[in-house]
Amino acid sequence: xxxxxxxxGNWKMNAxxxxxxxxxxxxxxxxxxxxxxxxxxxxxxxTALAAVAQELEGTHVExxxxxxxxxxxxxxxxxxxxxxxxESGARWVILGHSERRQYFGETDEFVREKVRAALAxxxxxxxxxxxxxxxxxxxxTLEVVFRQLDAIRDELASRPGVGVIAYEPVWAIGTGxxxxxxxxxxxxxxxxxxxxxxxxxxxxxxxxxxxGSVKADNAAGLLGMPNVDGALVGGASLDAAxxxxxxxxxxxx
Length: 253
Ligand code: PEP
Fold this sequence. Notes:
- The chain is an alpha/beta fold.
- The protein has a single domain, classed as Alpha-Beta Barrel (TIM Barrel), CATH 3.20.20.
- The chain is built from 11 helices and 8 strands.
- Strands 1-2-3-4-5-6-7-8 form an 8-stranded parallel β-barrel, surrounded by 6 helices.
- Helix 1 crosses helix 2 and helix 7 packs across helix 8.
- The longest helix has 18 residues.
- The protein is globular and about 45 Å long.
- The termini are close together.
- The site of phosphoenolpyruvate (PEP) has 13 residues, from strand 8.
- Phosphoenolpyruvate (PEP) binds next to strand 8.
């Protein structure tokens, strides 16, 4: 199967007001010649979600949330559900980001519940997995990545190709230390092989994005790898022109 590239911008806790609208307009403008070839997604904070979705209506750019709570409604003060995100105009949701795992104690099981809730509501999950520096140095990269992957693969297999995996080595996030293309490809290929042991259809259909200090000047090498199907971009997604250059680095497939 020919997997279409997906370039997603995780704005994190930035651009939550008027600046988010300007950024969204810049992304739509800067990537419009890629429409149909490369999927473009932006993930603003909750406060800007509906306004950004409205701003991007009729363009090729889709909107993602950065998190959800895995219940539809109820007494969960401060939380936001998958149906609410959908109603706000989101079509995607980033789940299990390492910052959520690290700062908010999200477990593999909780991430699984979130992936299930997203899919049940019709939202497309971008599920993040990745090892810390300590785990990599202890040669535990694949053990950790497979554990995180195995927790969600049943959910992903219920709708092959709807969900996306983002391999984000924690040591490369926001640090400027990007995994080299071969280093990333090695883990991406192992993830796809692990999926194939479970379901050939799932392995073939699932896009595996790389995330961790992706910038305009290192994107081409990463995106040129056979098992790298796109990028999840943090810091560099806050600059529309730089983000567009990352998307433009996706080769023809
Ligand atoms: C991220 O947070 O998903 C990320 C990849 O961040 P950065 O690009 O800033 O490393």
